[in-house]
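Appendix B. Raw example, untouched.
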Amino acid sequence: MLPRVLRKLLRALALLAYAAVVGAVFLLAAYISFSLFVRSGATRVPSLRGMARADAARTLADQGLRLRAGEGSGRYDSEVPVGSVLLQDPGPNTWVKRGSGVEVTYSLGPQRIEVPTLAGRGVPAAQVTLNAVGLVVGRTVAAFEPRRAPGTVVAQHPPPAATARPQSRVDLVLALPSPGEQFLMPDLVYRRYEEIAPFFTRQGFRLGSVRYERYEGVAAGTVLRQFPLPGHALSRRDAVSLTVATAAGLLDDSGPFPPAAPGAEPPPATTGTTGEPEGAR
């Protein structure tokens, strides 16, 4: 009796296993059929990043998709060239139905900022203006500019209306106070002191110390040395010191010629003028 029961049990297990196999095959076939049916009208979205518009449209058309521009005009990006695809929606490798549109956003390239005009502004105001647009103050140098208030911007680089990348430096040239009226010191050596002294006094220049010393072969009253030296800058506030030849036996403090009259305070100077005192040649 036991063998018959065992045979029945084995037969039941075999039938159950057969049914399970048939069910699995049926489910697998149904899944494959469903997948083929559903995906027959679907496709993967290709990656469009870095493509020009025409290339992106052609790539999408090969997959049965359409190209659609994004809502915005584009975005700044330092890596993707101007006019190329920067972003896309749906993203790459996404399954979509054929005929769907893919929205893209184009790159505007690296961001550029228009440099503002800074002429006439002080450094703090220039710094605030530059920071407001995303730029910073670079190197600062100074130059004499009588038409501008001291410390204000005379020139800049890059110039106004030029474009620069964010956080670029803008170099500034600042105005220095004018040094006043300037002349070129003439060569007075071997000229006559009695002619030089009245001229410098009339023109508002100050004659400082006048020393006398003997010098063989040189007529008394001839200028031997001078300070400032020829070619140096000279203003009416500077004192001109001379060494004058004297005759033998005349070496007292006053010398053989009257000392130069002390000059009064110089008249107001014309800003920025340079040259040699007229008539001192």
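End of appendix B.
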